[in-house]
Write a structure and sequence with these properties.
Mean pLDDT: 95
Largest sheet: 6 strands, parallel
CATH topology of the largest domain: Rossmann fold
Number of helices: 17
Radius of gyration: 26 Å
Distance between the termini: 94 Å
Low-confidence stretches: none
Number of strands: 15
CATH class of the largest domain: Alpha Beta
Strand content: 15-25%
CATH superfamily of the largest domain: Nitrogenase molybdenum iron protein domain
Amino acid sequence: MSAAISIQRLSSQDANFKPKLLASLSLPMADDAAIDAAVVNILKQVQSEGDIAILNFTKQFDRLNVNSVAELEISKKDLEQAYLQLSPKQKSALDIAAQRVRAYHEQQRKEAGCHSWEYTEKDGTRLGQKVTPLDRVGIYVPGGKAAYPSSVLMNAIPAKVAGVQEVIMVVPTPDGARNSLVLAAAWIAGVDRVFTIGGAQAVAALAYGTKTIPSVDKIVGPGNAYVAAAKRRVFGTVGIDMIAGPSEILILCDGTIDPDWIAMDLFSQAEHDELAQSILLCPDATFIEKVQASINKLLPEMPRKQVIETSLKNRALLIQVKDMNEACDIANAIAAEHLEICAANPRQWAEKIRHAGAIFMGNYTSESLGDYCAGPNHVLPTARTARFSSPLGVYDFIKRSSMIEVSEAGAQTLGQVASTLAHGEGLQAHARAAEMRLKK
């Protein structure tokens, strides 16, 4: 039998609990300066050399030696063929997931302030807001060792539901290895163009444009540290969704569920990478021991055992709390990406949650269902940014323009107000522009 996995235990009743918790939430410092310097160089070369730089970097990093960037584009016919050649089971799974993601975001478009509106005041002045979709969006999809067709659906479908005219996908294919599920997902989601490039160079191409790859208005989608650094650098030239960190799961549990389920849910995030974080909050010390036993029992059978074990040893937390009310308070302080509430009355506790990327309620709502097919978006804020940001959605692919049409009567009233304030700011031209429209 394998040795027990050592996972950090905390108690909310300890005198130094808060500083210990905050320290455990902090990520180890990466070599950010070296990554940023490399990214700056890549961005500059793509901006100045365009396609030539893309070809050179693709040869260097993905070991693909082609004569033109056009050779790195996958045709729509090839995307369709990738879909048609899937097994019936894979095809059905992608179809169902896409339908559910599309249905959810169609509802979101109706309910989340994604439509134009206006109202008319008594004097005839009309005020409102015009909502329009972005023209062109780029989505980054990780490739190489990992393949994420679900990320294609989650990034492309809301853009299409929002009305984005053109969605361009970039995905690295090291050594030319293409993933059929990823390409099939692009076909189902309605992606318009696909280029097999990745890394910071792909972000640069989308941001600045090259002879072959058009520039976009916004870049969304996850990537490695170089992709994240590139997105941070090009923000302002284009929009971005967020700077995503390692994946996280926080489970609030009252001890009324099978501990094996909780152990596997903790694994579901730990298997992403060694920096992923899995946390359990529970008032029942005996149940926490059962979860620890389940972890020791189930881990040896996991294909990604080494990754899970490293993640759990370095970043996981098993925390005993006073009660579920306190668990909710701690959850709000953590503001996790994924929050599971495994309890007899999950909605009672969900009402107390203010900060979480996505809330999974009830013993049968595993986080993995949200990752693939429940419908809501799985692109979520990490590293406590759920305190001020939201899941990717239709609202990320639209923009708002204020609409102002002042009537002659309205100008008499508003003109006086504007004139007074403008003179107070020392902006006489502003004041006179308003005053000229006043009746003598």
